[in-house]
Amino acid sequence: MGQYSISDLEQLSNVKAHTIRVWEQRYGLLQPARTAANIRYYSDDDLRRLLNVASLCERGLRISAVARLSEHERAQAVGALAGEAAAGHGPRINALVAAMLGLDEPLLHRLLGEAVAQLGLEPAMVEVVYPLLRRIGLSWQAGTLNAAQEHLVSQLVRQRLLVAADGLPAAPAGAPRWLLFLPEGELHELALLFINYALRARGQQVLFLGQNLPLADVEAACRAFRPDAVATVLTAVPARERVPAFAAELRRRCPGPQLVFYGPLAQLVGTPPAGSHLPALITDFLALIAVLGQLRAGQ
């Protein structure tokens, strides 16, 4: 059974702590308990209730009306909202978080499938999955979630990306060539898998080398494949103080192609080597694909 602080609830629900306190005190929606040291904490049931209430309020229902609903009525209403196509995806993300907390694989699979069917894979990734993963990542780092919950979501998304990329047609001859890899010791591959899909969907040639690749092997692959661009995602490695040296070493070993550094650590590259790019958001990376294609066409 989970034990959550109010800051944990804020991260997982995207509801401000002040609002949570108001809902708790005015409407009795949450029932925090106390530890032996008299520290307040919230349960899994509190978190699920908060996610449902937040979803309904986001769609315009007044909190006073939502508070009068039974638990069953709120859950039914949120279930209907989660399957709707709409510009705001808060209810859908909240439903995914709740399914993850319960390790409900069939429901997670259904909710992800509905998002992809209604939006398309790429918009679903950008608008639903990435915001979901940001919430999960913050909570996992803080120790609020366990590894099983985080891995369940990651594996379902990974499987969907692999199947989708495998179903795309081969790139035409002469298309831009990309080499994708993760540095030695880096195992977080979801972002790289999505980049792989996005490139292939745009008719690019991709050499996907995956996780945990030493730079000596990247250098050998660059010589053999002769890519127009090399992209990597820096999530957990290298160490923060080593990021500039890593970027410089990659440029030394692969002097010809454009270099793209993405991920939480990429902005620590500092002054990037010549011909390098540091997209801050995944949408920036998607826009960069077209820009680099134009650069190649102008050569």
Automatic annotation (TrEMBL):
One of the record's GO molecular function terms: DNA binding
InterPro entries in alphabetical order? Cbl-bd_cap (IPR003759), Cobalamin-bd (IPR006158), Cobalamin-bd_sf (IPR036724), DNA-bd_dom_put_sf (IPR009061), MerR-type_HTH_dom (IPR000551), MerR_fam (IPR047057), Meth_synthase_dom (IPR036594)
Q: What are the UniProt keywords, alphabetically?
A: DNA-binding, Repressor, Transcription, Transcription regulation
Which Gene3D superfamilies did the record assign?
1.10.1660.10, Cobalamin-binding domain, Methionine synthase domain
User: Where's the B12-binding domain?
Assistant: 175-299
List where this protein forms a coiled coil. none
Where the record annotates domain HTH merR-type, the positions are 1-72
Please verify whether the record's keywords include Transcription. yes
Please state what the protein is called. DNA-binding transcriptional MerR regulator
Q: What is the protein's species of origin?
A: Hymenobacter caeli
